[in-house]
Amino acid sequence: MTATLITNIGELTTNVARPGDALGTLHEAAVLLEGDRIAWAGAASDAPHADALGTVDAGGRAVMPGFVDSHTHVVFGGDRADEFEARMTGTPYAAGGIRRTVAATRAASDEELRRRLKGFTRELHAQGTTTFEVKTGYGLTVDDEARLARLAAEVTPEVTYLGAHVVPAEYSERRDEYVDLVCDEMLRACAPHARWVDVFCERGAFTPEESRRVLAAGMAHGLLPRVHGNQLGPGEGVRLAVAMGAASVDHCTYLSDDDVAALAGSSTVATLLPGVEFSTRQPYPDARRLLDAGVTVALASDCNPGSSFTSSMPLMIALAVREMGMTPAEAVWAATAGGAQALRRTDVGVVRPGARADLVMLDAPTRVHLAYRPGVPLVHTVWLGGTPL
User: Fold this and answer.
1) Which HAMAP family does the record match to this protein (predicted)?
2) N or C: which end of the chain has fewer CB within 10 A?
3) Is 171 annotated as a binding-site member?
């Protein structure tokens, strides 16, 4: 088993909370990696020494857990740059654009989709993301949804079945038949490749009653629930997610006091996706309101070709700090430990013995630089399962 000691770390973010410091920050620190796990972390002066150890000198740089992106749609065909350009000249965002990507994805070969997916995976890793979720939802036939789930499973264990993304055009007059398909044959084809079931509970997508049925069917097949909710306006998505015990409800742009209270009294994570608001010019979610109420908040990219075509978690951190009322420490936690909670993972998003050796070294002395220097490529080194990329 290979062992590597990363030493001379100026600032180590562990996410092992201590009194007054939710990020468990250590200075002049070191981390020992053994195989694909973290074996030890602490003060550099206490670091273990052995001839067999390889050593990496961090040179005073900051080290932190790899980013955990709990919401992406990175298996798809086609491009929607023209929609983005139209939005920038005043055309409002609408969920119906998803159908364009559905058509392009159905027309793409497995090899084309696999090639693009591998490219996005490299892009995520290069920006410090070491754990990421991938949704289906751009096939919307039994065979196409199954192949998207199968391809996604080649790059991540966090695969989400999202047959309930929108009702495809060929079922526009037969909604009930499509919901039947999502809950039965399509689900049975996708479940062997997936861990999660998701539904877009929103006007223009699926009603609360339809959404509840989809989630219940997925759960009956052993999938864990998550929800897209309250993105385009007020609705029942958040309260449905809480009632169904969903790990996460994502977007949360338009929330009532009852929604916030429901989240605060639950284990459901509010996953905020500021790349969407950046790309669609919608109002940003009020992260400060959620945090002050005691809600667990995660940040994710929602990387997709329509409403947020970015895979940059550093950008999400910068937007959350600048536009959503989060402190740099809160945003970093939400992009690492928060994302891990949204995926119900305890082995990522944290630097402690036994956790996966997924780390990011920044070319900066502190994590604050992720928000302080937006748009600058600050990721110096990424370790994925103990291996530098």
Assistant:
1) HutI (MF_00372)
2) N
3) no
